[in-house]
Amino acid sequence: MTVLASALDTGGPDYASHRSAMLEKLAALDAEHTKALAGGGEKYTTRHRARGKLLARERIELLVDPDSPFLELSPLAAWGSDYTVGASLVTGIGVVEGVECLITANDPTVRGGASNPWTLKKALRANEIAYANRLPVISLVESGGADLPSQKEIFIPGGALFRDLTRLSAAGIPTVAVVFGNSTAGGAYVPGMSDHAVMIRERSKVFLGGPPLVKMATGEESDDESLGGAEMHARTSGLADHYAVDEADAIRQARRIVARLNHRKAHPDPASAEPPKYDPEELLGIVPGDLKTPFDPREVIARIVDGSDFDEFKPLYGTSLTTGWARLHGYPVGILANAQGVLFSAESQKAAQFIQLANQRDIPLVFLHNTTGYMVGKEYEQGGIIKHGAMMINAVSNSKVPHLSVLMGASYGAGHYGMCGRAYDPRFLFAWPSAKSAVMGPQQLAGVLSIVARASAAAKGQPYDDEADAGLRALVEAQIESESLPMFLSGRLYDDGVIDPRDTRTVLGLCLSAIHTAPVEGARGGFGVFRM
């Protein structure tokens, strides 16, 4: 039998301690998500509703099929910055008329939906996901354009938004824009470059320059309606393909557009999937609060894969990396999961072979991170850890099957790269609240700086200030600790969201379904030179 046996003691003190630590982190995460849901706050939400308008998430809820899931992406964008958490934009994947779509919605309660640098990064990431997975894009538009004080960070890279829309269309991926309010200046190109545009009577305002700018530029007197109203664009300019009487009608028309797209998935959805044998609730008690303490990733795998059924690959070789085959919500996957944290030569070679096998079989890969990086030391350097680690990173870099990454615990150093971190273009990357990621652990990094400073002082024949050193180490440790936390990293869009461990199976299942909208094909050769 290949059903995983669990050794997790849910009645023991370790489990209780781990669960308590995770719940505390989840409570802090919920508080930050609440900020994103609040948008611009009660004052601006009330003002928006008084105008008879729906909020961004209410528009999405009406758009997607009843009782279908919506996987929100990057909800903590801009966390830790001077901008509102969420970056005045909601993005995610939802099902519209049975079709999985990438949906974006401006939040007009945050500075009128104006785009700041994090809004741009979030929107570009959404377009990247749509392109890679061939998901139709629906833009729910209501934005005053760029946040002008930060234009220096928006204007030049912002042109990629319009480039993306044209490339999506050229690739046969449908794009739909529904304009609920302002779509001005550069924002006018969103409906202008989308395949389908819906505008709302007396609500939509689409123009390159509003009345004040036109007055300044040409001296012409004009008003919103004649310059860029929905009726003008429907009757005169032809920019509006569909004319709606209100927001509900606009959303209805957007759903009908999607229903007529004739957009098909490359792979049919699996007929059924057996749930895991173990309770996902138990995922809360697996990862220790102290990430120096190892844990068995098979306990996680047993609670996310179908039937807890896992065929392990090379179980007796390179044992600090668990690899094997499973199904998740009916989709075949190969899984690479760190066990004891450190990657040695054997683990690296095992991973490279496993990745090649997945590519031969066209099977997506799931990376479950808990690694402090590749092993260092004279014995390991002489044993070839550099070339073996490079072999693993080579395989990850040139693999063509879709990759999904979940940071469960530590994800440090080049181990983050070998396990398909953000720079290696995973289709999706999520983190648990317990995750940490940096060039190395805070204590190690502070210690390295201390050793270097001490050696420098000795080389110059100068005395070393141990008291100042202790203060510097404490300062560095605090900085690296804060910068390695998942909310900090998620705020910079280094992941697609921080998720509750109990939702891991559902989140990965939604991602796998989206991935299978596009063809899944592995590399047949095409890897770089493997140094033997």
Description:
The chain is of the alpha/beta class. It has 3 domains: 1-27 and 268-441 and 486-526, 2-enoyl-CoA Hydratase, Chain A, domain 1, CATH 3.90.226; 39-259, 2-enoyl-CoA Hydratase, Chain A, domain 1, CATH 3.90.226.10; 442-483, no CATH class. Helix content is 41%, strand content 18%. The protein contains 19 helices and 17 strands. The strands form 3 sheets. Strands 1, 2, 3, 4, 5, 6, 7 and 8 form an 8-stranded mixed β-sheet that branches. Helix 4 runs parallel beside helix 5 (155-170), helix 12 packs parallel to helix 14 (385-398) and helix 16 (442-459) runs antiparallel to helix 17 (466-483).
Whole-number mean pLDDT: 94
The helix fraction, in percent, is 40-55%
How many H/I helices? Answer: 19
The parts where pLDDT drops under 50 for at least 5 residues are none
How would you sum up the major sheet? 8 strands, mixed
Kindly report how far apart the N and C termini lie: 36 Å
DSSP strand count: 17
